[in-house]
Design brief:
Radius of gyration: 19 Å
Structural class: mainly alpha
Largest sheet: none
Order of helices and strands: HHHHHHHHHH
Distance between the termini: 62 Å
Shape: elongated
């Protein structure tokens, strides 16, 4: 049994505190600038305990990245309808999955967003396979979409526009005191509705 596996023998409340602390500090600072001293202070545990289970900061990063991807994919599997073909409906389902994940791990999505911009070679190599798995999962979901009804914007640009909008919204809201994932979800739905309406208007104008 590896140290990471023994971590799950800890009480769930302590596991979650340690995971949440790591997610928050990594999300706010990136790998290089993230301080394990801040993590243990945030989690209320000793530094010795943290390194007993994760050996190094890289090992901890790899663990929380793998944990986050598995957790998010589990939520998306249950939230996303495999028969749905409408892009905006699928995005609503994805945001629902992200919101459910954030109820237990508020910084999980911001961490994954920051991880996508990570530049440290040792970290990139450590999470490469799991990161590819996450991208593949999103590709498979978007493969369901019928983009044929959209004429004014390419699928790639539409996905980027929505990603930038919702990721920016989340990055802003998650740092607010008393962040509530349901509040984010409500705002995300509003922005998706507006973007869908604008796309519809552009297509009507072109027609």
């Amino acid at each position: 049994m590896s140290m990471n596996e023994k971590f799950f023998d800890l009480k769930k409340e302590k596991q979650d505190r340690m995971i949440n602390a790591a997610l928050k500090i990594f999300a706010e600072n990136g790998f290089r600038r993230a301080s394990t001293d801040e993590m243990v202070k945030e989690a209320g545990v000793s530094k010795g305990l943290l390194f007993h289970y994760f050996i190094s900061k890289t090992g901890l990063y790899e663990f929380v990245f793998d944990y986050s991807v598995k957790y998010l994919l589990m939520e998306m599997t249950s939230a996303v309808n495999g028969q749905e073909t409408d892009y905006f409906q699928i995005r609503r389902q994805i945001e629902r999955a992200r919101t459910v994940a954030m109820k237990n791990f508020p910084y999980m999505q911001l961490f994954l967003q920051r991880a996508a911009e990570e530049k440290e070679p040792e970290v990139l190599e450590a999470v490469r396979e799991v990161a590819e798995h996450l991208l593949e999962a999103y590709d498979n979901i978007y493969a369901q979409v019928d983009f044929g009804t959209m004429h004014t914007v390419t699928p790639e640009r539409l996905v980027k526009i929505v990603d930038y909008t919702l990721n920016g919204l989340l990055a802003e809201m998650v740092r607010e005191p008393g962040f509530r994932p349901d509040s984010y979800y409500k705002e995300a739905l509003y922005y998706l509705e507006e973007l869908e309406r604008l796309c519809g208007q552009m297509d009507e104008d072109e027609g």
